[in-house]
Amino acid sequence: MLFLTILSFIALLAVGCANDTTPPGPHKVIGPLSVMLHDTKRNRHLEVVFWHPEALADESPLVVYAHGFNGDPEDSTWLTNHLASQGYVVAAPRFPGTNTDLSSDHLQLNDVINQPADVSRAIDLALGDVPGAPADLAGKIDAQRIALIGRSLGGLTTYLAGYDPELMEPRLTAAVGLAPGAGDIFYPPFYEHRDLPLLIIHGDKDMLVDYPATSARSHARSSAPRVLAKLVGGTHMGFADFPWLGFNPDAMVCTFFGSTFDQDPADITFHSELARRQPDSGVGDYTDSPPCTFDVPEVATMSIPRQHALSKALINSFLATQLRDAPLDQYQAGTRQLAADNADLEIAVAL
């Protein structure tokens, strides 16, 4: 609560903000719409928040959004609203153990191991396999066109739902990670379980998840079809609904909440649990440094509106190829041109 109060106060003082000039999509957006359900098999309550275009087409593609640690489905409306305006149905689970409504004593980092099943339950709900979804969605979603986008810890959830042999969601068509956390624990065998196309977008001035130790390493290790986009000067909080204050917003998080990252490694057990259950799956130990403890490049910080605009462009083109059958050669030419036109964007494509 103190953090939100400080943030709101500073936001009122912010001036000279750069604008996200991304044109709005053609569709009027309905949402957020909240649905509560109970997973009886796991005895787990789950809220799922939906956004969708007002005029739903038959066989609409579905995008699931996975929030980060101490986050929520509404923390990246720059993305969820945008996707719905582009004709996608968006479903975002509020993960029971890692959402912002929980006190610090009740946040459970290790609950990430249960989040891929929450993603699957959100898909079940959207497809009508369990009751309760908004009535307008009935029969409108194409079960063959489903993507998962995860931010931070939600990015780790995306890795697990995408490639883990026990936790993967087989209905996924594509995956996107926004500054995904803990990618360094996955080694080449992990990605060999499935050829799921993956887009990773990460800023090199991220102070919470080290870009070269995680996302750059994940791209190098993966054998799956993949794209790596480095935002030069991009930040971790730049992927959230965070005001642009003219400096790296991650520094504020580290200043006020850096101590919350000082966890005893013995208490972070999800990766050892993964490795214990699946000794040949390619899951290993951390090599990344804890948040707020590593150096970042001495480059200008990218504004949050620009980070949103570049991310939208990258996600739009990737999803068009993976969910809407846009030609691959057109995508490859477009990404090359996007990188050529923007000096603060570097893209590596291996599709």
Describe this structure in words.
It is a single chain. With 351 residues, the protein is of the alpha/beta class. The protein is built from nine helices and nine strands. The chain has a single domain (28-350), classed as Rossmann fold (3-Layer(aba) Sandwich). Helices cover 29% and strands 19% of the residues. A nine-stranded mixed β-sheet has the order 1-2-4-3-5-6-7-8-9, with helices on both faces. Helix 3 crosses helix 4 (153-163) and helix 8 (304-323) runs antiparallel to helix 9. The radius of gyration is 19 Å and the shape is globular. The termini are far apart.
State the major sheet. 9 strands, mixed
The geometry reads as globular
The CATH topology assignment is: Rossmann fold
Can you count the beta strands?
Answer: 9
Radius of gyration: 19 Å
Examine the secondary-structure arrangement and name the CATH architecture.
Answer: 3-Layer(aba) Sandwich
GO molecular function, one term: 1-alkyl-2-acetylglycerophosphocholine esterase activity
Organism: Halioglobus japonicus
Protein name: PET hydrolase/cutinase-like domain-containing protein
InterPro entries: AB_hydrolase_fold (IPR029058), PET_hydrolase/cutinase-like (IPR041127)
